[in-house]
Amino acid sequence: MVKRQAEESLEDSVAQDSPASKKARVYDVPEVYGHTNGFSAAPDPLFPLSEEKWEEDERDGNDILAAADIQEGELEGAASPLDDVDPLNEESAYSATSRQQAPIEGYSDLYLDTVNRSVLDFDFEKLCSVTLSNINVYACLVCGKYYQGRGPKSHAYFHALEVGHHVYVNMQTKRVYVLPEGYEVKSKSLDDIKFVVDPKLSKEEVAQLDRGAKDAWDLSGKKYTPGFVGMNNIKENDYFNVIIQALSHIPSLRNFFMLEDLSNRPELVQRFSVLTRKIWNTRAFKTHVSPHELLQQISRQSNKRFDLLQQSDPVEFLSWFLNNMHLALGGSKTKLGTSIIQRVFQGKLKIESQKITAKADVGDRLRFEEAAEVIVDTTRYLMLTLDLPAAPLFQDELEKNIIPQIPLTSILSKYDGLKAQEQMNTRKRYRLLHPLPPYLLFHIKRFSKNKFVTEHNPTIVTFPTRSLDMSPYVEPNPSMHSPGEPIWYDLVANVTHEAVRTRDDSVEGEAERKVWRVQIRDRARDEWLEIQDLYVQGIVAETLFTKESYLMVWERRKEGKGKARS
């Protein structure tokens, strides 16, 4: 049988009538989606647009993400353009997106005019506002929000595309980037923001903090004094604020946390260091700081014993804080002077105790008997507790309770080694030992608890602000200190308590709320200031004792420095 001859060649027939191959159809996609549909061409992984075209579309306001979605829908179901290509070697749309390594010449300051310093607040915990992660966090310098990462799949990248905020700073490295382009900005105009993120002063600048009075101004032109700024009371953390303010004005402690490299220490140490440097920031954007980061760490580490939602006792918090800081700094539980905490506050105390026998005279139970055995023990302390005499129960002629006054030296007599106290069936007496620490912490015990209620003692303690002689309360040791020579201490900070009655809808009618303040000495101006949360005001030194002192910080005067002043 003779085959019929074809009217045209196979090659001509395929070229005219045969549908385009799968490979050809996919390759022709970029030509189909030009500017005919009202959108600019989306960056395709196989045919990426130039950086100039991307920036042009972004400036024109074209919806790049919408165009990409349309293109994705049209290509859905299409096979891979290269059937013989190993899929493991194919790049995704994200990985194929090219990033600029540097700004275009002449455009190095692009987008920097959008930076809004007035909304920047770096005091809060560095968590991504979407994922709540604290890893690789960037802050948007336009709106102040935190986002994780800066890659093409990151939330900061999408924030830049959706909202048009382009300038971001890495909260760890302090490097600034422009997104979505991805290049680093090295403009000196952003150095003030980098400084506020993590303020660091030189050794010479720290040494001048207490020597010369220096004023500063925030972004709004408001005047403030570095070191004497308000601290935000987020809810009920005023007990925390007064302790941090007092500790940040102890020069030995402050200088250590401002100058030492603590990047390898636990988070508690690092966050206290940052907060201390922010309190003494000379180029702050605002006249107050927020302790949110340190509070969150303390709340986690103390199992919410101390947090910002419930008011606690400042002395209990100080005791917990100093012990945990000591351990976080690598301090030992047995050896002396293994951390800055011990070197600043720790001293030694001698305790003599004797059992109270049945033969003891009823009217003289506290007198040590010569025949009975006396047990002598030596212990260490970070804080000394001073007991107040019982408050009177009688009222004066105006039917108001009498508020007694007592000198500080009277309640310090607890440590003279002569006055004994009764505890259970034991009489005890105390004596301080040489050498005394550079700083003494006095806790004036005003609250006592029983099974039913917490009692408050409003006794006023009078004291000098300078020249407190501690030699009568220290056991003589000629090898360390000449007998008869005074040991002068000057007041650094004084935490006060005030009971404020507030209306309560309960049966009791009125409740009593505790208000904590701290009085701090400005060494440069030789003035005193009182700080209550965000409020900072001057106070006359002669009126400090009129408040209910609760915690006092005293600094030992260096030998031969200054004369005794009352």
From TrEMBL:
Predominant localisation class: nucleus
Record InterPro entries: Papain-like_cys_pep_sf (IPR038765), Peptidase_C19_UCH (IPR001394), Ub_carboxyl-term_hydrolase (IPR050185), USP (IPR028889), USP39 (IPR033809), Znf_RING/FYVE/PHD (IPR013083), Znf_UBP (IPR001607)
Annotated Pfam families: UCH, zf-UBP
Keyword RNA-binding: no
PROSITE patterns assigned: USP_3, ZF_UBP
Region (Disordered): 1-60, 79-100
Domain UBP-type: 107-204
Localization per record: Nucleus
Residues in USP domain copies: 229-557
Gene3D superfamilies: Cysteine proteinases (3.90.70.10), Zinc/RING finger domain, C3HC4 (zinc finger) (3.30.40.10)
Protein keywords: Metal-binding, mRNA processing, mRNA splicing, Nucleus, Spliceosome, Zinc, Zinc-finger
Residue stretches in coiled coil: none
Protein name: Cysteine proteinase
Organism listed in the record: Stereocaulon virgatum
Lineage of origin: Eukaryota, Fungi, Dikarya, Ascomycota, Pezizomycotina
